[in-house]
Amino acid sequence: MALNKKPVTGMRDIMPAEMQVRDYVLNLIRETYAGFGFNHIETPCMENIGNLTNKQGGENEKLIFKVMKRGEKLKIAEATTEEEIVDFGMRYDLTVPLSRYYSAHANELAAPFKAMQMGPVWRADRPQRGRFRQFVQCDIDILGDPTNLAEIELITATTTLLGKLGFKGFKVCFNDRRMLKAMAAYCGFEEKDYDQVFIILDKMDKIGIDGVSRELQEAGYAAEMVEKYMSLFTDLETAEDGVAYLGEKLGEALSAGVADNMSTIMNSVKAGASAQFDLVFDPTLVRGMSYYTGSIFEIKMAEMSGSVGGGGRYDEMIGKFTGQNTPACGFSIGFERIVTILMEQGFQIPGAAQKKAYLLEKGMSSEQMISVLAEAKAEREAGVQVLVVQMNKNKKFQKDQLAKDGYTDVKEFFKNK
Amino acid sequence: MALNKKPVTGMRDIMPAEMQVRDYVLNLIRETYAGFGFNHIETPCMENIGNLTNKQGGENEKLIFKVMKRGEKLKIAEATTEEEIVDFGMRYDLTVPLSRYYSAHANELAAPFKAMQMGPVWRADRPQRGRFRQFVQCDIDILGDPTNLAEIELITATTTLLGKLGFKGFKVCFNDRRMLKAMAAYCGFEEKDYDQVFIILDKMDKIGIDGVSRELQEAGYAAEMVEKYMSLFTDLETAEDGVAYLGEKLGEALSAGVADNMSTIMNSVKAGASAQFDLVFDPTLVRGMSYYTGSIFEIKMAEMSGSVGGGGRYDEMIGKFTGQNTPACGFSIGFERIVTILMEQGFQIPGAAQKKAYLLEKGMSSEQMISVLAEAKAEREAGVQVLVVQMNKNKKFQKDQLAKDGYTDVKEFFKNK
In this structure, how many other beta carbons lie within 10 angstroms of the beta carbon of residue A41? Predict the structure, then answer.
């Protein structure tokens, strides 16, 4: 009969103080993105298991919480494989559900469709500090827009949001998978080796240019090729405009228009920025997921290692899911990381309502109670948060606790004698 | 590779128009309840399966979506029972998680603790029209307050919310399980028969007093006893103050203070009401769950059959879970039903932002794009929702669709020649 008091392994309860910050951030996200014309949508937290295990989700597919069949369909004793007893799975991201949603409803939706999603996802990762098996993702995606207006709007919306949350001086790193590939091609790397090369390149901020050079050579690439590759990066350090430099230097290795496209995106975002941040071309930005086809971007902050958001263009993914080619571009903000930073900074919610506590002595008459409640009503209608509670025997302890919860204004009501 | 386009059976995708209403209602719930000092909290959507199957959840325990163990712990071929392959389950309500949360965190929380929860729950009900297997519940609960201040605050908060949503003339039916039992005891029914008697009584609004009388006699209760019982209800129809009438009439069958307590709650709620509604004593109100120990209440609206919210006092439930007696009282608002009513009424969200669409001709220069985006930025900062999109070839169709999405104000930007 007794309850297991702990949340399930790797998931957590959220206390009121953090919840207030979460609610504030979620509301700000919703309002800000709505201001850019994104439509909030929602899909069920479960998907048919086949939708989650079709190789689009990469490593995440190994981390699915699977839901068991029910009733007569479930025959445990006879089953020998998962397929026989599982029908649904918990979503591990919001991109697969979005693809399904879009394929089901595209003809009811605007074209292009600007989608906003906020909701929990589940991954059965090995539990570790600061990393949870249920966490909230916030994604914006533009489906059906092949032009760079999508990138511009996504980056502008995201940085505007961060600015409203009080963040400044953060960095938006920007690259394009086609640029990444052109740089490798220009130096003689073969397409089949790109994945391995980029995994090593991705370590640039950790192991430096010497480390990358060494690891590439250790992986068997010719020293001359590696040297040529590395010299591109050193040249970029001094180039005034890295994108323009590469646009010229790479010649035919880079498809026509890619460099211009990148420049337009960066210039437009900078010109239209309302937050204070740096948008920088980062030729070492890789973004792990192989489904990206064009622009990629990532947000970095001094307050936190790793990224606090990222995304890119994935023009071929929705088509693979739905059979109908649909250009797509998305930006996912690191909601949990942002909340963590704000909590660590002791974030004060702007415009939070005044909080008052009424302590009522026990045994008050009905008439007196009514008059106290009328007072509470008037204050609440004026926008004050009024907590009406019985006075505890240990009033000092009660007041201390109320103060901890932000009720510094305490009014005591005693029984009429 | 192809995706199954449909959401999992019995669950649904939510389209932008409904989502806007849902977000508005959720925000209003959060703000209104916060105004009464309720603390928003959150627990994981999964619980350890043992917590969900300990007989506190009644029929809902048969409807659990169960989550399969993972990795080495999962041995399907060897398993013959559910217990061997399941470790978690999706929550079917917010009360079990609240009990667990409170037992884990009570010493960090205010006493009494006013909790607000909003989130999805899952029940593997047979799929049917208007009833879904994932739906949002919104609960407020006061834990640790044995006094009727809890009932007063819960009913006042809930009715205030409904008033803010524009509802009026709805009915809050009020009763007390102890009154219900006293009426039966007074007429000679035995305690062991209460459940059966109340199930029949619960049909009063469908089959009328004659129907209830007939069914009770068919169930084998003495005609005289049934007649005495029914006459209580007919007497109540003409009684000016039903609670006072019964308080006197039932004598010792009713515990001292119950009638007074009911009157105080009703008078206080009426005096402090900010919405326009009827709070009525309903001697036929039963509320199914057997865990209720005192006050019970339910909201009825002309717009929808059944109830759109309900709750009551359950002083013994948390103790059964946690081993520590904790008086508790809660009110659950029928979020999905309220959204359904609002959608059917064509609810217009008050204070919704002005919506403008900018249509950009394709092939605009970077400079021109920057100037358009600057204009969008200025409008967004002034609170206008600005959708910036490429102009489609079929501009008329695009505009029609935009109008459908609320963008009546469309501005076209053409490429500079």
Answer: 24
CB < 8 Å to B19, chain A? 39-42
Return the minimum-mean-pLDDT range out of B31-35, B242-246, B389-393. B389-393
Closest partner CB to A16 (pick from B35, B41, B82):
B41
**C-beta pairs of B196-203 under 8 Å, 24+ apart in sequence:** B197/B221, B198/B286, B199/B286, B201/B284, B201/B286, B202/B284, B202/B286, B202/B288
**Cα radius of gyration (chain B):** 27
Q: How confident is the model at residue B95 (pLDDT cuts 50, 70, 90)?
A: very high
How large is the average pLDDT for residues B56-69?
86
CB-based contact B386 A36, cutoff 8 Å: yes
A contacts of B320 (beta carbons < 8 Å) = 1
Mean pLDDT (chain B, rounded)? 93
- Do A19 and B41 lie within an 8 Å CB cutoff? yes
* Sequence spans of domains, chain B: 9-146+315-352, 355-413
Structure tokens at B83: 């217990």
CB-count exposure of residue A373 (10 Å: 0-12, 13-18, 19+)? buried
Q: How confident is the model at residue B297 (pLDDT cuts 50, 70, 90)?
A: very high
Residues of chain A neighbouring B8 (CB-CB closer than 8 A): 44, 46-48, 87-88
Contacts of B239 (CB under 8 A, 6+ apart): B245
Sheet containing A277-281, strands listed edge to edge, beginning at the edge strand earlier in sequence: A39-40, A113-122, A134-143, A328-333, A304-313, A295-301, A170-176, A277-281
Q: Closest Cα partner for B332 from B360, B347, B312?
A: B312
CA nearest B165: which of B274, B265, B271?
B274
- Residue of B11, B25, B46 to mutate when probing chain A, most A C-beta within 10 A: B46
pLDDT band of B1, cuts 50, 70, 90: low
Q: Taking the CB of residue B183, how many other CB atoms lie within 10 A of it?
A: 25
Q: How is residue B56 written in tokens?
A: 């506190």
Query: A186: which residues sit within 8 A by CB, 6+ positions away?
Result: A228, A232, A249, A250, A251, A253, A254
d(CA A244, CA A240): 9
Instruction: Quickly name the fold that domain B9-146+315-352 has.
Output: BirA Bifunctional Protein; domain 2 (3.30.930)
Is the per-residue pLDDT at A93 higher than 90?
yes
**Burial of residue A124 (number of CB atoms within 10 Å: 0-12, 13-18, 19+):** buried
CB B339 within 8 A of CB B167: no
* Residues 6+ away with beta carbon under 8 Å from B156: A373, A377, B36, B269, B272, B273, B274
DSSP B158-215: HHHHHHHTT--SEEEEEEEHHHHHHHHHHTT--GGGHHHHHHHHTTHHHHHHHHHHHH
Handedness of CA A6, A11, A13, A18 (dihedral sign): positive
- In this predicted structure, which of A82-86, A357-361, B178-182, B263-267 has the lowest mean pLDDT? A82-86
Query: What ipTM does the predicted assembly reach?
Result: 0.94
CATH of domain A16-344: 3.30.930.10
